[in-house]
Specification:
10% helix, 9-stranded antiparallel β-sheet, 1015 residues, mainly beta
């Protein structure tokens, strides 16, 4: 649309989404010389406008300084604001987080495309500039890489243009409006527009100029748009390169274009072309014979240099362009990359920084791409909008497959309180929404089309179905037949099922996926979102990854999601914490639902990543007593860049270590022997560890970093029985008082209370270990997933049972070598439930603890079967021989390994946004609790390994805190020994139960044993 005057009514007009905006084009760079192009540095024909702008904030349009764009309007007294950046994160307006509901729900009675008039924040920006030297006679353009959600632009008092679509660039021609000397640029940004109805993503609702802004000029003959298409022959060996160029400029007529392809080392391979521009167009095609292929495993990039000469033969422009030869296609209902079946080991990624919101930096992106690669992920879905161009360049270079998703989500228009109710869904079949939606698709494709990392175009997210989105998919297929098209929403509206080339679902249970795959489907399956990683989650992920080898048409999925969307805020005492929805007084809000990351918002990896890295590894290692079986599931990469490191540990202590050079080709397996001599080993428990580590540093990891791991645990019987050391045994002295029973064995002094029905004191070498007596525990601090299943309602009786167990009876027995006392507890949950805790003090000074539970029918599942006590906070260090090193649970222990691991007790509490159960270890053989001098006590599993949680807080303290700052000052170290704790789940966080095998039935009998002894 063209116009010379701005009109505020465009904000609510669904047919007006751009005015005077330039057509979308590829995101290539361009330079004046080959030297500049090869250096790939800052473009001299681009002038950065990032930095400090003058700024005025108005809560609604009628409060804005309407004529601020005029040349003589003074901004003296205005505030300063940083660009790029969000208005709401720089001290203005209301920070708000909502998920599926629209942000005005319950505040304004609206239906699309109407907008709230009382709260539509307006940011007025002013920036002055002088043209760089040498630009005076050239055309000058401005590019806004991202503005949320609608904006008007003026230069020197004259209207330039209008744009919507927050996540793709809007470019305008400034040439007619420039003046000598100082130029005044004015930008008016509105938080709400018709685009807001299409941007109902699960994120914080911001506004402002949050991506780069820059001026640029172009040479007399300029490649405005570039399309690079590679193709491979049927053998996936020989490559063809196709180029389509659109040129503009006064010297474009008669200009000549040639291209030079260089390999990754910079060696020139061939120069081709040399053809004249015809009607502003040039098409080139060149066959290159055998080429190196691009994939996420081996992201080989060629460098193409396109040179433009004017009619006089003068070089006027050089465009450097990365080229990856690859072919992505559907073969027999299965997606293939370069002829091989692909499995997406993916993650959904929002652009986010806890201080800058979505105005992320290059450093953020570099950290992200390295972290994603280091943890064996091979794919990213840009949820739910096109990302900054640099992200795609990094995915090309580092090797990640990308689902590029257009900026579309209308979740609140068709799903309410979880129910599908599309009575006023948009865009649906409404023709008036066609153009505004299609424009977003075109803008994404035209900008991003040359990135080999992008395999799939996505029609947006959670916008139901309908004809409009179907037409978008048809545009994708016609504009770019080299890629496939994704859209999950057809699951809710099958009328246009061919919208998506693959069946894509969110949070389907593994059984539902298998049901689909067993029904002779016509499309392959991916989970565009699965494993909702909210808080302590990712339990049961193995049930999804196990489908990869079972069903060829199961082609992986994308975890939800990569990073917590939480924002730094200060509590009332001035201490920073990571805040979530509602913490800023935002209403409506969806509160902590913004915290679903496998990475914390401050870019610290969560404990959940341990499981992700293991289950996503392409190379599987299966060690045993003789050697290790290596299964290389890579499609293209062998193991020549890796070194096999093996070790043998006995009771957690290394007894053997070595390295081997083993090259296993892709898609093959090999078994190698290891010099373990297992039959000659002394008795004990052993772990055979095998790992592949990098021989040399890569872009994404350091030399020696681990990329694959496997462990085998076995027990070697001992031929001899260890003789009892009589020096470690003492006489057992029992003092039975009226209220207490004291037991002394050497330096071990134990006191049992008849009144309280428990152990009340255990002194080891004169140091007390019991600050608050042990008590049966059946409750864990609810996780986010637990809350989603209403555990507090369904299982809450176990909370009360844990608070008020009553000792019904006790009985004791003394023998020459031990003193045994048994306490029987009744619980208020049922008269038929009985718990017996038995303490046996032995002649070596150790205290053996046996916990037995006898249940009954009709009760809810147990969250945990445990015994918990408090000890001194002086014991602030813990060391385990257990599964680790990070926290793990029954359904999230595949990535854990048996070994000796250590931690500060304070660090065992994971910094999830809402305090909850965390820090557990499974497979605990022993644990040492120590003060800083190394003094303390040891807990040993007896009949079988136990689970153990050592924390500064009780389950109840964690349960009652909604933020970390609400937790009380630390007065104890809380020790919880469990025979079993239920899994954490993760299929979703709003009702999916933990899988049955990881739950604890309450109608049977349960028991566990452990030993407490002095160090």
């Amino acid at each position: 649309m063209k116009a010379t005057q701005a009109d505020i009514n465009w904000l609510g007009n669904v047919s007006v989404f751009e005015v005077n905006r330039l057509n979308a084009y590829s995101d290539h760079r361009y330079y004046s010389t080959m030297e500049e192009a090869q250096a790939a540095g800052t473009m001299k024909m681009r002038y950065d406008l990032n930095g400090t702008w003058k700024f005025n904030y108005a809560i609604r349009p009628d409060c804005r300084p309407e004529l601020f764009y005029q040349s003589d309007y003074s901004s003296e007294g205005w505030d300063d604001i940083e660009v790029p950046g969000h208005i709401q994160l720089q001290g203005y307006g209301q920070i708000q987080y909502v998920n599926t509901q629209y942000p005005w729900d319950g505040l304004n009675e609206l239906r699309p495309p109407a907008l709230p008039q009382d709260k539509n924040a307006v940011g007025s920006y002013i920036r002055t500039f002088h043209l760089p030297s040498g630009w005076q006679n050239n055309p000058v353009f401005i590019s806004f890489q991202g503005v949320e959600s609608a904006f008007y632009v003026w230069l020197n008092g004259q209207f330039v243009g209008y744009g919507e679509d927050s996540f793709t660039p809007s470019d305008f021609d400034l040439t007619p409006f420039l003046q000598d000397g100082e130029n005044k640029l004015a930008v008016e940004v509105y938080q709400r527009s018709t685009g807001s109805w299409l941007e109902d993503q699960d994120f914080w609702r911001f506004s402002g100029i949050f991506r780069d802004v820059y001026l640029y000029t172009v040479p007399a003959a300029h490649i405005r748009d570039l399309r690079v298409v590679t193709d491979l022959d049927p053998s996936y060996t020989n490559g063809t390169l196709n180029l389509d160029l659109k040129l503009e400029g006064k010297a474009a007529a008669g200009a000549r274009v040639e291209a030079e392809l260089r390999d990754a080392e910079g060696n020139a391979l061939r120069t081709f072309g040399g053809v004249e521009v015809t009607n502003g167009l040039v098409s080139l095609r060149e066959e290159f014979g055998k080429v190196n292929l691009w994939s996420a495993e081996i992201p080989y990039l060629y460098r193409l240099y396109i040179r433009v000469y004017d009619a006089a033969g003068q070089l006027v422009e050089v465009v450097p362009q990365s080229v990856g030869f690859r072919k992505f296609e559907m073969i027999d209902k299965v997606m293939h990359i370069n002829g091989k079946r692909i499995v997406f080991k993916g993650v959904n990624r929002h652009e986010f920084n806890p201080r800058r919101g979505r105005a992320i930096t290059k450093e953020d992106m570099l950290w992200d791409v390295r972290t994603i690669k280091q943890n064996n992920m091979n794919a990213v879905r840009t949820s739910h909008y096109p990302n900054q161009s640099l992200w795609y360049e990094l995915c090309d270079e580092y090797g990640l497959y990308v689902i590029d998703e257009m900026n579309l989500e209308t979740h609140g228009s068709w799903q309410k309180l979880g129910a599908v109710e599309p009575s006023w869904v948009i865009p649906g079949d409404k023709p008036e929404w066609h153009d505004i939606v299609m424009d977003r698709a075109v803008s994404m494709v035209e900008r991003d089309k040359n990135h080999p990392s992008i395999l799939i175009w996505s029609c947006g997210n959670e916008s139901h179905g309908g004809e409009v989105i179907y037409k978008v998919s048809q545009y994708f297929k016609s504009a770019d037949p080299t890629r496939l098209v994704h859209y999950e929403g057809v699951f809710h509206d099958r009328r246009f099922d061919e919208t998506s080339d693959m069946e894509s679902r969110m949070y389907a249970k593994p059984a539902d996926i298998e049901e689909f795959l067993n029904a002779n489907p016509t499309k392959p399956y991916i989970s565009c979102e699965y494993m909702h990683a909210m808080g302590n989650s990712i339990g049961g992920m193995h049930k999804y990854t196990e489908l990869e080898d079972k069903y060829p048409m199961y082609q992986g999925g994308f975890i939800w999601d990569y990073i917590d969307q939480s924002i730094y805020k200060k509590d009332r005492y001035g201490k920073e914490y990571l805040a979530y929805g509602g913490d800023f007084g935002d209403r409506p809000s969806d509160y902590s639902f913004c915290g679903n990351g496998i990475v914390h918002a401050d870019r610290k990896v969560t404990a959940k990543m341990q499981e992700v890295k293991f289950l996503y590894q392409n190379i599987k290692l299966f060690p045993d007593r003789e050697g290790v079986k290596i299964v290389n599931g890579n499609l293209f990469a062998d193991t020549s860049a890796l070194e096999l490191v093996y070790s043998l540990e006995r009771e957690g202590h290394e007894v053997l270590r070595g390295t081997l050079e083993v090259n296993v080709p892709a898609q093959s397996e090999k078994t190698v022997s290891l010099p373990l001599d297992a039959d000659t080993l002394a008795g004990g428990e052993y772990a055979v560890n095998a790992a592949f580590v990098l021989k040399e540093a890569t872009l994404w990891a350091d030399k020696g970093d681990e990329v694959a791991f496997g462990q085998f645990i076995f027990t070697q019987d001992s031929a001899a029985t260890a003789a009892e050391d009589l020096n470690l045994t003492n006489d057992i002295q029992v003092v039975e008082g009226d209220v207490n029973i004291g037991v002394r064995v050497g330096q071990t002094h134990v006191l049992f209370s008849k009144a309280f029905g428990t152990l009340v004191s255990l002194k080891l070498s004169g140091r007390e270990t019991i600050a608050q007596p042990p008590a049966p525990l059946f409750w864990r601090a609810t996780t986010d997933n637990d809350k989603g299943t209403a555990m507090g309602f369904e299982l809450g009786a176990w909370y009360a049972a844990s608070l008020l167990p009553r000792c019904a009876e006790w009985k004791a027995e003394q023998k020459p070598d031990q003193y045994r006392i048994e306490f029987t507890y009744k619980l208020n949950i049922s008269a038929d439930v009985q718990v017996k805790v038995t303490y046996t003090v032995r002649a070596d000074g150790s205290v053996h603890v046996h916990n037995a539970y006898k249940g009954t029918a009709g009760l809810p599942d147990l969250p945990i079967h445990a015994l918990s006590f408090k000890t001194s906070p002086e014991y602030g260090n813990v060391e385990w021989l257990a599964m680790g090193p990070e926290e793990n649970y029954a359904d999230r222990a595949f990535g854990a390994r048996l070994g000796i691991h250590g931690s500060k007790v304070a660090d065992t509490v994971a910094p999830y946004l809402v305090p909850q159960e965390s820090g557990n270890r499974t497979g605990v053989r022993w644990a040492k609790l120590m003060d800083d001098a190394g003094r303390g006590f040891k807990i040993e599993a007896s009949a079988a390994p136990v689970e153990l949680n050592v924390s500064p807080y009780t389950a109840f303290e964690l349960e009652n805190a909604q933020h970390v700052y609400e937790l009380p000052p630390v007065h104890y170290t809380v020790v919880t020994v469990a025979g079993k704790q239920m899994g954490v789940g993760g299929d979703d966080s709003w009702g999916a139960p933990v899988h049955p095998e990881y739950r604890i039935a309450s109608d049977g009998e349960l028991e566990f044993e452990f030993v407490i002894r002095s160090l």
